[in-house]
Amino acid sequence: MLFSLLAGFPARNDRLASGLVLVTVGKFVLLLLSISAPLLCSVLLRKSREQNQVG
Fold this sequence. Notes:
Blueprint: H1 2-7, H2 14-54
């Protein structure tokens, strides 16, 4: 999408540009999920192991 916008630089493509906003937001959402999901799983696994050792 970005290359298409750059290739036709003098011309404006508002539809493609607005779609690029959604792609960028989605990229950052997935980035945050890729960091938070393993962290959450690690914490839950650690708590589960601690409960199994005590009980």
